[in-house]
Design brief:
This protein is α/β, with parallel strands linked by helices and 355 residues long. The chain has two domains: 3-148 and 337-354, Rossmann fold; 160-335, Glycogen Phosphorylase B (Rossmann fold, 3-Layer(aba) Sandwich). Helices cover 37% and strands 16% of the residues. The chain is built from 13 helices and twelve strands. The protein has helices spanning 3-6, 26-40, 84-96, 115-122, 132-135, 187-197, 217-229, 245-251, 267-273, 286-289, 304-315, 318-335, 338-354, and strands spanning 15-18, 45-48, 77-81, 101-107, 126-129, 143-144, 173-178, 204-209, 236-240, 254-257, 277-281, 296-299. The strands form two sheets. It has a six-stranded parallel sheet with strand order 2-1-3-4-5-6, with helices on both faces. Strands 9-8-7-10-11-12 form a six-stranded parallel sheet, sandwiched between helices. Helix 6 packs across helix 11. The longest helix is centred in the C-terminal third of the chain and has 18 residues, at 318-335. The chain starts with a helix and ends with a helix.
C-alpha cells in the first residue's frame, strides 16, 4: 500500500496519535494494533510520525498548520500523546502556537514521575492510566483503561503450522520467552530456569524470540554460553527476531514473561489470546491480566526461585497447562478484547471534544 493510499485529510481528522519513536516499542505496538480498530469503529483518528508500518492511516508534519483550523464537525481535535516528547509537542502546539487542541496523555509507567513529566501531565486536559499500578502514581484526575489485544491477529491454533512439531525442533512441547533480550526483560531468569528444569523434562524445548541490540550483545552471548555449558544447545534456542511471532505463540504450551521492569506489557495477553498459559512476574500490568491457578501464575519480579517453581508447576503436568491455555483464551476474550479499549478511549475523546 502506498503512502498516499493511507494518507488521511487532516481536515477530516478528530484525533491525532503521534508516534515520535522510530524503533519498535510496546507503545508503538499499541498504536499499530489500536488505530485500525478505532477506524473500523468509525473514529476519525490518524497517526503522525516515523516508525510505523506502511498502510497506517496518517497525516503529514507539513499539514500541521491546519490545526489552527477547526476540523469538520467539531471545534477542536484531540492530541493523544503516549510519551514525554509527544506531550511536549502538544503543549507547544496548543499553548504556544494557539492551535485548536485538547491534550490527552496515556501513562503506562509504574514509577514516580520526574518533576518535568509531572508538569507536562498537569498541562493535559485528560489523563488515562493503563493499569491500576500506573494510576497509583498519578496526582491528577484520570481514567483507567487497560490495553486490549487484537483477537483477529492473535488467535488459537488453527492448523498443522500452529503445532510445536511444525517448528522442527526437538521435544513435543514448547515453552517460550519473547521480547528484546536484556536484563530488564528478565531473559536471564528464564534461561537459567530452563537450564535447571529441562534436564528433568525431556519432552520440552525452550525458545527465546527477540532482538539483541548492540548494547546488550555481551548479555546475550553470556546466556548462550550458559546454555552450551549445560549441554542444552538443542533444547534452549535463541531464534532472534522471527518473521511472524504470532505463529510462535500458537506453537507454545507455556509462555513466560519474567520482566524485572515493564510499562504495561502486552505479551501475556498475546499469548493467552493464542490459547497459551502464562507465567509472569509482577512487573507492569501482568498481575492484572492473569487469574492465578486458572490461566497461569504470577510471581514477584526478579524472584528466580519463585519463577522456577511456577514454571515447574505447569510443565510437570502438560494437561494442566493445556487446561490453563483454554481458560486463558476465554478470559482474554471476555476482558481484554481490543474493541473494549477502543470504545473506552472513544468515550474519553467524546468528552474532550464536547467540552
Amino acid at each position: 500500500m502506498t503512502e498516499n493510499a493511507s494518507l488521511v485529510d487532516v481536515r477530516d481528522t478528530l484525533v491525532i496519535a503521534p508516534n515520535f519513536k522510530r524503533r519498535l516499542s510496546g507503545v508503538t505496538s499499541t498504536i499499530v494494533q489500536l488505530i485500525p480498530v478505532q477506524r473500523r469503529l468509525g473514529l476519525k483518528v490518524a497517526t503522525l510520525g516515523p516508525g510505523l508500518p506502511q498502510g497506517m492511516p496518517h497525516i503529514r508534519f507539513r499539514d500541521l498548520w491546519r490545526l489552527w483550523q477547526a476540523p469538520k464537525g467539531a471545534s477542536r481535535r484531540v492530541w493523544h500523546a503516549r510519551r514525554n516528547n509527544e506531550m511536549i509537542a502538544g503543549v507547544v502546539l496548543k499553548y504556544l502556537l494557539g492551535m485548536r487542541l485538547k491534550l490527552l496523555f496515556t501513562s503506562a509507567a509504574q514509577r514516580d514521575h520526574k518533576p518535568f513529566t509531572k508538569w507536562l501531565i498537569r498541562r493535559m486536559d485528560a489523563v488515562v492510566a493503563t493499569s491500576a499500578g500506573s494510576a497509583a502514581f498519578l496526582k491528577v484526575p484520570h481514567t483507567v483503561i487497560r490495553h486490549g489485544v487484537d483477537l483477529a491477529l492473535f488467535h488459537p491454533p488453527e492448523g498443522a503450522d500452529d503445532t510445536a512439531q511444525a517448528a522442527g525442533l526437538s521435544g513435543q512441547r514448547l515453552i517460550g520467552c519473547f521480547g528484546r533480550v536484556r536484563h530488564q526483560k528478565g531473559t536471564d531468569l528464564f534461561v537459567r530456569a530452563m537450564v535447571e528444569l529441562l534436564p528433568d523434562h525431556p519432552g520440552w524445548t525452550a525458545v527465546v524470540c527477540g532482538r539483541v541490540t548492540a548494547e546488550h550483545k555481551a548479555f546475550g552471548e553470556e546466556l548462550k554460553r550458559m546454555v552450551e555449558a549445560a549441554g542444552l544447545g538443542e533444547r534452549i534456542l535463541f531464534l532472534g527476531e522471527v518473521p511472524d511471532v504470532k505463529v510462535w505463540y500458537r506453537r507454545l504450551s507455556l509462555y513466560v514473561a519474567p520482566s524485572r521492569n515493564e510499562g504495561f506489557g502486552l505479551t501475556p495477553l498475546e499469548a493467552m489470546a493464542s490459547q497459551t498459559a502464562v507465567v509472569a512476574s509482577t512487573a507492569g500490568a501482568y498481575a492484572e491480566m492473569i487469574l492465578p491457578g486458572e490461566t497461569g501464575s504470577v510471581v514477584p519480579a526478579g524472584d528466580f526461585e519463585a519463577l522456577k517453581a511456577a514454571i515447574a508447576h505447569w510443565i510437570e503436568d502438560p494437561a494442566r497447562s493445556d487446561a490453563a491455555g483454554i481458560a486463558a483464551l476465554s478470559h482474554v476474550r471476555a476482558t481484554f478484547a481490543l474493541e473494549n479499549e477502543a470504545n473506552a478511549l472513544r468515550a474519553v475523546y467524546d468528552g474532550l471534544l464536547r467540552a
